[in-house]
Amino acid sequence: MKKTCGTCDMRGMLSFQILWLLSKKSMHGEELAEEIEKRRGAKPKAGTIYPALKELKNNGLIEGKKDGKIIKYVLTKDGKDEVKRAKAYFIRSFKDILLSD
Amino acid sequence: MKKTCGTCDMRGMLSFQILWLLSKKSMHGEELAEEIEKRRGAKPKAGTIYPALKELKNNGLIEGKKDGKIIKYVLTKDGKDEVKRAKAYFIRSFKDILLSD
DNA sequence: CGCAGTATATAGGATAACCGATATATTTAA
DNA sequence: TTAAATATATCGGTTATCCTATATACTGCG
């Protein structure tokens, strides 16, 4: 994914952002990539998003329900817990940046 | 730095967080490391924070004013602009996460 | 002065995110 | 039924963050 921001390259935030999006709504890979594009301005490539989804699945945080060529991803119980934990950590790290004028 | 959060390792956010902290207050390396520790829960090691500062200096975003053994870092004009740009990007990417209940 | 503590610095290496290219399966269009 | 488009998948490689040493400079204290 092209770097849209010189200073913060968001490396390491992809899995978190995926989990958070799935906590709002079940989606498939393409849909997730588009949602992330809306936010970051650059769309994660197939070679980025699918390995990330595989990793999350291997870690038991999401599971995929296949329907034809589309795989809809849903958070597992562990995934929901992880979103909570990760979000708390994220907020503790950055809330003052967001809240500053 | 140890991973405090399984899903989001914050890789790539260090420079941004340093710049933002410096936009609030001029600080030296140790001080920055402590401020980051307050937020992330883990303190960046010397081998992490000083190369990051060097990089920012090389890019003309900060400059260091040496006073004895202490080097106080200040944002340059370019640094201030970059903080603005990076912050706008950060907020666009993550504000819905920070604002969700 | 000599020693401990603090702040800065750098080299070397591990990790992992991400991409480019490529391949496969399914659906739709023609 | 064949072609095009969509969705998923994997591999190899690059890049940059971050860490573990280790080293140096300055300060203060005895």
Please outline the helices and strands.
The structure is a homodimer of 101-residue chains.
Chain A: H1 14-24, H2 29-40, H3 46-58, E1 62-67, E2 70-75, H4 77-99
Antiparallel strand pairs in A: 1-2
The structure holds a DNA duplex (30 and 30 nucleotides).
Mean pLDDT of chain A: 88
Globular, elongated, flat, extended or rod-shaped: what is the shape of chain A?
globular
CATH class of chain A: Mainly Alpha
- In N-to-C order, the SSE pattern of chain A is HHHEEH
The CATH level-2 architecture of chain A is identified as Orthogonal Bundle
**Fold-level CATH name of chain A:** Arc Repressor Mutant, subunit A
Q: What is the structural class of chain A?
A: mainly alpha
Helical region count of chain A? 4
Please give the most extensive interface between any two protein chains, plus how many residues each contributes: A-B, 36 and 36 residues
**Total strand segments of chain A:** 2
Report the end-to-end length of chain A measured between terminal Cα atoms.
29 Å
The helical percent of chain A reads: 55-70%
- Going across the major beta sheet of chain A, what is the strand order? 1-2
Q: How much strand content do the residues of chain A show?
A: 5-15%
Q: How many discrete domains of chain A?
A: 1
Structure description:
The structure is a homodimer of 101-residue chains. Chain A is mainly α and 101 residues long. Chain A has one domain: Orthogonal Bundle (Arc Repressor Mutant, subunit A), CATH 1.10.10.10. Chain A is built from four helices and two strands; from the N terminus they run αααββα. In chain A, strands 1-2 form a two-stranded antiparallel sheet. In chain A, a hairpin with a 2-residue loop joins strand 1 and strand 2 (70-75). In chain A, helix 1 crosses helix 4 (77-99) and helix 2 packs across helix 3 (46-58). The longest helix of chain A is centred in the last third of the chain and has 23 residues, at 77-99. The radius of gyration of chain A is 14 Å and the shape is globular. The first copy, chain A, starts with 13 loop residues before the first helix and ends with a helix. The interface between A and B is large, with 36 and 36 residues. Chain A binds a DNA duplex (30 and 30 nucleotides) through residues 1-2, 9-15, 28-30, 44-54, 68-71.
